[in-house]
Amino acid sequence: MEMKTYLDLLKILPKTNCKECGEASCLLFALKVFSGQTSLEKCPYLDQDLFPQRTSLKGLSFNQTLENLKILREKFQSLDDFIERAQDLGCEPESTGRGVLLPYLDWLIRIEVNQEGHPTQLVNLSGETLDPRDEILLCNYFIFNGKEPLTMDFVGLESFPHSISKVKTLKIYGEDPLVELFTQNQPKLRSILQRFRVKDFQKDTHGFSFLVSILPKVILKVVYWEGDPEDGLPPGGKVLYDRVALNYLDLECLVFCAERFAERLRC
């Protein structure tokens, strides 16, 4: 069975969080399998005959370990003047005054703040659990604390320094899945996109493009072209970033933004 991401494995796990594998949840088990920290055999409810080739399991494209997350959490929770920083990054104060609200993908994240003014935890108000990759992205967004105004001039990932290895990852985990989704769901595409903070949707005879806010200061321009079957041209797509995007996130996080957007579209 071919599996491209930990989500493919998660779909066939029992999702009961029984802990018989030794992990706290099925989500954590799937993440650790893909990062090589545990094995499929640890789950007693998986049909092992489905996995004759262990090499078909591919590593996470967002290649951060849980140890990275622990370090980032510590940095995040020690940030000073957090409320002011959060407002500069597009958050809204919560009515209680004990936190801020952050739009992220099609979610709203509550960030609790303690009496000393430090952030304590991230809570997804939809009730869905944030996985470690989401937390890494969100912590980095506040740690980077980008100041340069967005230009709304969008460029390919290859325009950024040291991005050669990431361009292929973006295509495999972000652009190709988006092209597949758009090709299969064109009649209902606009209704699917309504959950997200999408604007400037433009359609022509060859395809369409739109802007989507992953975070208030991280905006992607998504371009899709339909191709021409008669000429043997397949459909294609491209994800573009604001020219100053590296002020707000690193390359891995920027790639993950496109990957996570594709994943959320499938939900």
UniProtKB/TrEMBL annotation:
UniProt keywords, alphabetically: 4Fe-4S, Iron, Iron-sulfur, Metal-binding
Listed InterPro entries: 4Fe-4S_dom, ACDS_complex_subunit, DUF3786
Entry superkingdom: Bacteria
Any Pfam family the entry gives: DUF3786
Domain 4Fe-4S residues, every copy: 1-60
Any one GO MF annotation of this record: 4 iron, 4 sulfur cluster binding
Signal peptide: none
Protein name, entry field: DUF3786 domain-containing protein
